[in-house]
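User:
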Amino acid sequence: MTTLTTPEQARDAGIALREQHADPRLILAVDRVINRWAKSGRKFSANDLRSKVPVAAQDLVAGRIRSAWMRKVIVRVGEVKSDLKSTHAKRIGLWQGIEHAAARSDAA
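Assistant: Predicted structure:
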């Protein structure tokens, strides 16, 4: 049995496990929503996306955001307080499509 020694390893293992057992159509549905928001130029958090995907896919959102970030589809542009009651106002990432974020920084 592998011991996960860092919080990052535990996070990545949890994401991988969820995605291994997920219906590929749900993963694609989440990716489509992320891509739509990225192309729109609007800033968004994981909470914004959860209401736009099927209930069965909501636990995939954070992992798919991480995947989109790693593929350079989106970039983190800040933080917001989570509005989910279960998170107790924890700060979460605010994201934007990389093309729009780059255009904004070029204009500054």
